[in-house]
């Protein structure tokens, strides 16, 4: 476009400047209009986004007697009622809910919960509820506020005013001007100011003031466009919704566990109270057989093993005292065999001479020339020679017989038929499964307490009775032996155990079951505190053993706090 320079009043130039200012103001009006409330998303927002952010409407209250957690679905409120002392579900109780002045009984469900329905429960806003529980532990009245979120607006109403490609300019302008929002009035004001500046530029006198006003307007609109509020530029991961029904670890390290999950995991708690107990010391031990109810089977001379008629005994086979377990054929070297054969021949020669003498003596007695005493002497001498021959012959033919030393079962066997064993090799071990001992080593003074227990690797507890203390050191330690009272069937000889021997000194502290103590990520001992009906907090503790099933907490837990005693290891695994 070309303008004449010799315009009398400079109107062409003034019109061009005014048109440029008007276009500039209109360009900045669009960002100013679209500034508030947009989230810069590139897809349609779900209609239930507000409800999803709010989570499931729920209540969570507790008193000295009961804990009550309720979840709302539609107009149906499901209540979980547990004891505050041990988190045990309360069944068979009478529960009623008062909402908007109307008291309604809650019907028990088969899963141990209670349910009540009312249209007042689904009304948006904060609804005050009065819950009355009458159970085995007494009656209690609990007050809670159920917050129900407002329904989400449709997507068309929640639009941010962004320009849609392809929309006609007039239709967009009509829609823009028809929206009763502060942004529309602001855009109209910008448009009016730009129009006024354009007209002012037509006058030479007003031109400097118009340029200054236009610059100020541009700076103001630029700040408004880039400083618009209401949008969320945070790209961090979303935090857990408090109304979620999924167990999860919260940012502060605590764990959120819904009541439904607590009942599946069978979470139980106890109230921490100081108790005075007898102290204990930890010893390392192992299971040994009772020396009076079993034994070892060994060969004195060694040789080749021969199986008995019933076959070689198997592991776990019950045997009786004196029962033949195996035979061992004695080894005889070639020189010894020659000596035995020579000795047997010599004895047989003497037997032949003795038999001949005996025959002559008997003839003399029959003829009256001999005496009966001579016949008797020869018979005795002949019988002795025959016994000598049998004994010498038995050396190379009769094997050694191995028998069970006591009633019991075969605990171990280290031999097969035909095996050559050395003297004093242990071939079988016979034990009595109902009579087992535990042997432990103490590198300090021997404990003098009476209550002693042991803990196996799989967590089984053994009651022990002291049997003896050695007067000689073994590996610079004192040997202690205990008898196991009613040993379980799966207890094995040689199995390692942890012996907790009472020291006879008293210990004062909070006593908890050993299952309540778990290990943190750094290996530290910790317990889980029941801080709220659906929230658990970790606590690092310092513990000492009391016996195989209990520990005493020296630090980390305060009196009156509720600590998880069952299911702590499962809560510790929640991430």
UniProtKB/TrEMBL annotation:
Gene Ontology cellular-component annotations: cell envelope
Positions of the UniProt region annotated as Disordered: 33-54, 229-255
Extent of Low complexity compositional bias: 44-53
Domain named Multidrug resistance protein MdtA-like C-terminal permuted SH3: residues: 508-569
Transmembrane segments: 183-201, 208-227
Pfam families: RND-MFP_C
UniProt lineage: Bacteria, Pseudomonadati, Pseudomonadota, Alphaproteobacteria, Hyphomicrobiales
Claim: Cell cycle is one of the keywords in the record: no
Xref: Gene3D superfamilies: 2.40.420.20, 2.40.50.100, Helix hairpin bin
GO biological process, any: plasma membrane copper ion transport
Descriptive protein name: Efflux RND transporter periplasmic adaptor subunit
SUPFAM superfamilies to which the protein is assigned, alphabetical: HlyD-like secretion proteins
Keywords: Membrane, Signal, Transmembrane, Transmembrane helix, Transport
Residues spanning the signal sequence: 1-34
């Amino acid at each position: 476009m070309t303008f004449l320079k010799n315009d009398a009043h400079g109107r062409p130039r003034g019109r061009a400047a005014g048109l440029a200012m008007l276009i500039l103001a209109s360009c900045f009006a669009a960002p100013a209009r679209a500034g508030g409330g947009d989230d810069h998303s590139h897809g349609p927002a779900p209609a239930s986004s507000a409800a999803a952010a709010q989570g499931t409407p729920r209540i969570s209250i507790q008193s000295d007697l009961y804990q009550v957690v309720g979840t709302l679905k539609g107009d149906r409120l499901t209540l979980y009622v547990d004891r505050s002392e041990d988190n045990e579900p309360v069944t068979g109780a009478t529960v009623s809910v008062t909402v908007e002045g109307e008291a309604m009984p809650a019907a028990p469900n088969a899963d141990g919960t209670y349910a009540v329905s009312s249209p007042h429960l689904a009304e948006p806003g904060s609804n005050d509820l009065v819950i009355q529980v009458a159970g085995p532990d007494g009656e209690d009245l609990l007050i809670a506020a159920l917050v129900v979120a407002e329904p989400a607006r449709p997507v068309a109403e929640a639009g941010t005013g962004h320009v849609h490609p392809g929309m006609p300019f007039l239709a967009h302008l009509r829609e823009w001007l028809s929206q009763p929002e502060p942004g529309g009035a602001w855009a109209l004001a910008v448009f009016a100011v730009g129009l006024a500046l354009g007209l002012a530029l037509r006058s030479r006198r007003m031109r400097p003031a118009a340029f200054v006003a236009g610059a100020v307007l541009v700076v103001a609109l630029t700040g408004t466009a880039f400083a618009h509020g209401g949008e969320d530029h945070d790209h961090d991961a979303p935090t857990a919704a408090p109304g979620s029904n999924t167990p999860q670890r919260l940012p502060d390290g605590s764990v959120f566990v819904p009541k439904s999950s607590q009942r599946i995991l069978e979470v139980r708690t106890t109230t921490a109270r100081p108790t005075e107990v007898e102290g204990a010391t930890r010893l390392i031990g192992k299971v040994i057989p009772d020396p009076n109810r079993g034994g070892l089977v060994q060969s004195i001379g060694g040789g080749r093993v021969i199986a008995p008629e019933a076959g070689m005994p198997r592991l776990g086979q019950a045997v009786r005292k004196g029962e033949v377990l195996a035979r061992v054929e004695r080894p005889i070297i070639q020189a010894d065999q020659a000596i035995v054969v020579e000795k047997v021949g010599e004895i047989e020669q003497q037997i032949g001479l003795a038999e001949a003498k005996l025959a002559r003596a008997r003839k003399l007695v029959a003829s009256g020339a001999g005496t009966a005493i001579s016949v008797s002497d020869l018979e005795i001498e002949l019988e002795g020679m025959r016994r000598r021959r049998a004994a010498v012959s038995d050396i190379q033919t009769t094997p050694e017989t191995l028998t069970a030393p006591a009633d019991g079962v075969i605990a171990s066997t280290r031999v097969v038929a035909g095996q050559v064993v050395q003297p004093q090799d242990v071939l079988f071990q016979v034990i009595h499964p109902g009579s087992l001992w535990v042997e432990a080593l103490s590198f300090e003074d021997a404990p003098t307490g009476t209550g002693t227990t042991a803990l196996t690797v799989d967590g089984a507890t053994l009651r022990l009775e002291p049997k003896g203390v050695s007067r000689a050191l073994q590996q610079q330690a004192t040997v202690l032996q205990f008898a196991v009272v009613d040993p379980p069937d799966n207890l094995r000889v040689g199995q390692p155990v942890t012996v907790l021997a009472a020291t006879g000194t008293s210990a004062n502290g909070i006593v908890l079951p050993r299952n309540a103590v778990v290990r943190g990520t750094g290996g530290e001992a910790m317990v889980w505190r029941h801080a709220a009906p659906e929230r658990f907090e970790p606590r690092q503790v310092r513990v000492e053993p009391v016996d195989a099933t209990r520990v005493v907490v020296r630090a980390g837990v305060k009196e009156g706090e509720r600590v998880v005693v069952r299911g702590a290891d499962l809560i510790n695994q929640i991430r």
